What we know:
The chain has helices at 2-62, 66-71, 320-323; strands at residues 87-93, 101-106, 112-117, 122-126, 131-136, 150-155, 162-167, 172-176, 181-186, 196-201, 207-212, 216-221, 226-232, 238-243, 253-258, 263-267, 272-277, 284-290, 294-299, 303-308, 314-319, 330-335, 341-346, 351-355, 364-369, 376-383, 390-396, 401-406. By secondary structure, it is an alpha+beta fold.
Amino acid sequence: xxxxxxxxxxxxxxxxxxxxxxxxxxxxxxxxxxxxxxxxxxxxxxxxxxxxxxxxxxxxxxxxxxxxxxxxxxxxxxxxxxxxxxxxxxxxxxxxxxxxxxxxxxxxxxxxxxxxxxxxxxxxxxxxxxxxxxxxxxxxxxxxxxxxxxxxxxxxxxxxxxxxxxxxxxxxxxxxxxxxxxxxxxxxxxxxxxxxxxxxxxxxxxxxxxxxxxxxxxxxxxxxxxxxxxxxxxxxxxxxxxxxxxxxxxxxxxxxxxxxxxxxxxxxxxxxxxxxxxxxxxxxxxxxxxxxxxxxxxxxxxxxxxxxxxxxxxxxxxxxxxxxxxxxxxxxxxxxxxxxxxxxxxxxxxxxxxxxxxxxxxxxxxxxxxxxxxxxxxxxxxxxxxxxxxxxxxxxxxxxxxxxxxxx
Length: 408
């Protein structure tokens, strides 16, 4: 017994030492990340200053500056300076969630964004002040009932004050994010029977769609809080769902992505499958629609597939393993507001940013956004009110969120 006790004591001491070293390394990593972000901002400022100086020099040369004339020559400016990146980090939000951040959504007017986490909370951020505005969490004073960990979040497009989120506890929650009050909790016998993974709101009707591990997607009347249609899938979890806009040709179509590596297009009026899209070799996690008629899917196989929703033909097959790293898995994907760019959240802690979706040419990698220290799972687009440039928010399993801004 004494020998066993000595071994236990020795192992405990060893564990404590290893844990201390791990904490030190984690603190060092956070310090290096902060220093890197600071250096990047300094580099951007220096580039801007250099550009201003160059412009001033051009103006002086054009006007025949007397100083240049007196010394008999005009100094040459080196135009081979580094070009600033299209997107820069505007702000890092590292200390709000206590667990991985699994989803993020931007309001239609880009005045706020909301994050949803496995810690069972949603944080509403004010983009004008770039600060946390309020925290939404399920609390029932009578039952002491808590909302489960959250998998996805979205703003209602026809009711801007409504926010929907899906949970591991098999329910869908609707909130008024302006008042901070919960509107309803949807589930039970007529709802999902397993974890709810994805959510989307229709842009022209008062309906929403949710996707679940119970192998179904459900179409809801979110104002009345009742299910309208249940869309069955053959035996595999359904992870994502998106409506295909409000144009007459596609206003009743809804797309789902499933762990059977297929994407299905349903007509929600009669629940029939219009077409089934194939091409991925692993679980499909991300799905999004662009108004010009494009459908994008992202998969753990590392690829993004782009389909034409008029012909259902595959237009582009984008290899993120080639552009980012061989270990890359693609999680959720999102088109920019104008439909020309696509952001892909990647398992390797980065965001792959592609552009050129409005032209006939193949889209190209525009930028790799780095900084997260764990899997980036979701991204959301907005528009900067001052510059009219694009905003992008990335949500990561490192428990943090990063706000990126387009440099015009």
